[in-house]
Structures are given as C-alpha cells and as structure tokens.
C-alpha cells in the first residue's frame, strides 16, 4: 500500500512580520511496516536557516528561521509512504493468538515503555479514568479484546464535537465534558491505560478517508489524525483509534509519537509583529498511489 501525503499550513497576518521561527513535525517516521520513501518540505518565504534532526522519541522534525519581512507564511510537506499490510496484521494477529490477559501487560520490561507509564502535561492518572477503563478491562480479559471494546465504548459515549475543547484540554477534562476531537479521545484512552498500569503513548499521523458513496474525492478534504498506542511487553505496540471505533490498520500513516499532544504538535513557533494572525488555513491530502 503506497500513499502520497501532502499537508499545507498557511498563515495570513494583518501586519508585517519581521521574523519568524518555527518547528515542523510533519514528516512520517520510518518504523516496522512503514517506510518513508521520499519527502519534500517547502516553506514560503524561503527560510534563511533550515535544519532537520530527530527528537528524544526518534521523531523527525525541522527547524526554520525566516528573517525577511512577510505577511503570509506557508509550510507544505509532501511524503511518499509505503505501508506493509502483512506487518501490521501479523503483529496484531500474533498478540491476539496468545490470548494475553491485559494484567500481564503491566509487567514492563522494555526501558522505552517505562516513560509512557508516567503522568504527562495533558494526561494525569486518576481513579476516575481507571474506573472508566476498568469497564472494558475486566479480570483476565485478553488485551486485544479489551482494547477493541474500549475503542467502541469511547466512540459511543463521547460526542465528536470540534470546538468543545482546546489543545490544552486534559484527559480528565475530556472525561467530564464527554465531547472532543481525535486528540482528546486519544488522551482519554491513554489516561485510562496509564491509570491501570499499562504503558500508553500518543500517536499523530493521517488516515486515508473515503468520500460518500457516489461522490468524487475532494482535494484538501482530509485532516491530520491522532490515536493511542499500548505496549504489550515482549511483543509490541497495539494502536487503537477511538475516534473511529477500531484498531489501526494499513490505512493509517504514523508521523510521530510522544507522551501526549504537547510533545508532537505538527507546527509551532514564534513570530515578531505588531499585528495578529488574520487567517489560518490547513489542507491535507492522503492519496493512495496507483489509483
């Protein structure tokens, strides 16, 4: 399965910006089952300085500095991705075949997993989150079955409502509001898992969407996405998407992961101006190659 992912973020300011400093975290990771064959990053105006590197979690990001006066700024990343369908299905199938009870996943042996047991800025463990998760994680229940049930329950219990939350909304607040977007539902699942002693991380990326039956696919109609991932020690990570009530499959592209959204915002920075941002546009296309 091959995809071309194009993501454009455009800012329009009401006054001159004398300088701009930004960080872009939009280039997909190279991980088992996913290969980033090629990528392009285009920034306008052309930056005076541009550097690429990896962060603490191994995510790829770029730093840029624009020193020329401007009123418009656009950042476009285009990536060509290959997804190995068997790799993702085989991992999930292997974990499911063992019937591993969820309690066994609390014995964390991998050093990388321990950091995802701890509280983070937007996800703090609590008795309330543990109680909500426990409805799916009954005694001895296989972990894949429990995770699938939790994804279904979050999808049914919480309303998808853009504008109901902010990027700073915590998992505990989402539990009370009972509404939000994909970022919030990922935080909620992570909070439930950590509150039960399981290592869980936040994953950002993209999901190939399908147009309504009989309707053509609209350019720029896709969006970036987020979901949760839970570690099964000795076997690997299981990704689940509560927004769409399912486990992650070959239609997902992973960009980055961290403790929560605050570790992996797609674009952040500082500008120097006397004005404000007049307009912000985001356009995303996830195109399956060869079709």
In words, what does this structure look like?
By secondary structure, this protein is α+β, with helices and mostly antiparallel strands. It folds into 2 domains: 2-81 and 265-288, Sandwich (Immunoglobulin-like), CATH 2.60.40; 84-263, C8orf32 fold (Roll). It is built from 6 helices and 14 strands. Strand 6, helix 5 (171-177) and strand 7 (179-180) form a beta-alpha-beta unit. The radius of gyration is 20 Å and the shape is globular. The N and C termini lie close together (11 Å).
Q: Per DSSP, what share of the residues sits in E-state strands of 2 or more residues?
A: 35-45%
Q: pLDDT under 50 segments (min length 5)?
A: none
Rg of Cα set? 20 Å
Shape: globular
CATH class of the largest domain: Alpha Beta
> How does the major sheet shape up?
7 strands, antiparallel
Helix content: 10-25%
User: What is the number of beta strands?
Assistant: 14
Mean pLDDT: 90
Distance between the termini: 11 Å
List the helices and strands in order: EEEEEHHHHEHEHEEEEEEE
Number of helices: 6
Domain count: the total is 2
CATH topology of the largest domain: C8orf32 fold
Which architecture name of the largest domain does CATH use? Roll
Q: What is the structural class?
A: alpha+beta
Q: Topology, pairings included?
A:
Elements: E1 2-24, E2 34-44, E3 49-54, E4 60-66, E5 70-83, H1 85-98, H2 111-114, H3 127-134, H4 143-157, E6 159-160, H5 171-177, E7 179-180, H6 182-195, E8 200-207, E9 224-232, E10 236-241, E11 246-247, E12 252-258, E13 267-273, E14 277-288
Parallel strand pairs: 6-7
Antiparallel strand pairs: 1-4, 1-5, 1-13, 1-14, 2-5, 3-4, 8-9, 8-12, 9-10, 10-11
Helix pairs in contact: 3-6, 5-6
